[in-house]
Automatic annotation (TrEMBL):
The keyword Cell division does not apply. Transmembrane segments: none annotated. Pathway: Amino-acid biosynthesis; L-methionine biosynthesis via salvage pathway; L-methionine from S-methyl-5-thio-alpha-D-ribose 1-phosphate: step 4/6; Amino-acid biosynthesis; L-methionine biosynthesis via salvage pathway; L-methionine from S-methyl-5-thio-alpha-D-ribose 1-phosphate: step 3/6. This is Enolase-phosphatase E1. It comes from the Bacteria. Pfam families: Hydrolase (PF00702). GO terms for biological process: L-methionine salvage from methylthioadenosine.
Length: 225
């Protein structure tokens, strides 16, 4: 019996195009001014120091160049993801940004929540960014549906150890937890950790079977896996 569902965001609950064509360009455009305005704030300064320690960047200008390069590479670096979350927070607060979530995902998340199934998010985007997206949608604030959030601070999404860490946090047997994603390598890692899996075949996803149950959308996700 499935007692909890852990879902990816990009390409699963939400459009990849929204992330790549809206969120990333917004963060890249706003990042230089944001760093200059908030570089001395304690939280931002700590994140910039992480980048400098990793790359040897000597000043804010060099750190900004590094971060913009990471955005272009779509690098899953925790300090970058956290900074993006802070930048997006300003965008959502100003009304310039609005989170995209598929209608079928909203419908099923609400149904599963009402049925007593615990819901969690695991994304390479920071926990802050996840909460912002789900708090500012055309369907209203969806954050009350979720029992918890995980990001790369628990580990990479293609590493089985990350999913073992999630299971330890949930306090449930692994085979009572279903992981939803569009990426086969992530599903492989989750299955290695003992979780049940289902691949979402959103737009642009190769429908070739990769050893996991598949669904075109959340309405097609079976809990009898």
């Amino acid at each position: 019996m499935i007692r909890a569902i852990v879902t990816d965001v990009e390409g699963t609950t939400s459009s990849l195009a929204f992330v790549k064509d809206t969120l990333f360009p917004y963060a890249a455009s706003a990042l230089p001014a944001f760093v200059r305005a908030h570089g001395d704030d304690a939280e931002v300064a700590a994140l910039l120091a992480e980048v400098a320690a990793e790359t040897g960047a000597r000043d804010h200008a060099a750190v900004i160049d590094t971060l913009l390069g990471w955005i272009r590479e779509d690098r899953k670096a925790t300090p970058l993801k956290t900074l993006q979350g802070l930048i997006w927070a300003e965008g959502y607060a100003s009304g310039r940004l609005r989170g995209h979530v598929y209608a079928d995902a909203v419908r099923q998340l609400r149904a599963w929540h009402a049925a007593g199934i615990r819901l969690y998010v695991y994304s390479s985007g920071s926990v802050k960014a996840q909460k912002l997206l789900f708090a500012h949608t055309p369907f209203g604030d969806l954050t009350p549906l979720f029992d918890g959030h995980f990001d790369t601070r628990i580990g990479g999404k293609r590493e089985a150890a990350s999913y073992r860490g999630i299971i330890a946090g949930l306090g449930l047997p692994a085979d009572e937890v279903l992981f939803l994603s569009d990426v086969c390598a992530e599903l492989d890692a989750a299955r290695e950790a003992g979780l049940r899996t289902c691949q979402l075949l959103r737009e642009g996803v190769d429908p070739k079977p990769c050893g996991h149950p598949q669904a075109a959308d959340f309405d097609g996700v079976s809990l009898d896996v």
